[in-house]
Amino acid sequence: MKTIGLLGGVSWHSTIEYYKNINKLVNKKLGGKNSAQCIIYSVNFNDITSNAYKGNFKAIEELITNACIKLEQSGADCIGLCANTIHRFAEEVTHKIAIPIIHIADETGKVLQKQNISMAGLLGTKLTMEDEFYCNKLRNYGVEPMIPDEEDRKYIHNVILEELTQGIFKTETEKRVLSIIDKLQKCGAGGVILGCTEIPLLISQSNSSIPFFDTTIIHSKALVDFALK
Hints:
By secondary structure, this protein is α/β, with parallel strands linked by helices. The chain contains 10 helices and 7 strands.
């Protein structure tokens, strides 16, 4: 079994889900008392958000790079960045380490492609929804992302930063996010990508008829597949 390196803390709530998912998947595949070989490097989320507010993306890139180097030095065979948004820096970091970063958008694109979904709603932070780093990855797999309107994007972004990453999950927020998903479905989306690893902690598939694509689970499965192949 290869060792999975997890860059967590963005936020710690979803990092817990990664750890649980990965260990459950390994045990399901191998049985018995088997669990995952993994190393977690958890960053201070405030260091990410404070630099993001200042527009200091270079500092975020350096923080993520240093964390990935430490994971590699600690014996990781691959790296999973445990948040969609920080994949904005994955390409730059890849050039500074010798082990692969399993990209969450690539893995999500593969899943949608297999299910013949050519248009999918995308929910996440403003950077994930609006920056081309994520959308272009999806397009590589024949998936055209559909993002909410500006007002809804602002709402989702604020909810992620001020509620979900703080472990706050409100019924009224759930209802509003589901209403945004309903709009995307009416506009022709064949599925919705939960492109923030905290969103699956807020809403569940049972509350909507459109397929949800939980990027935390998709990413966890890809990391386990790498570790066990």
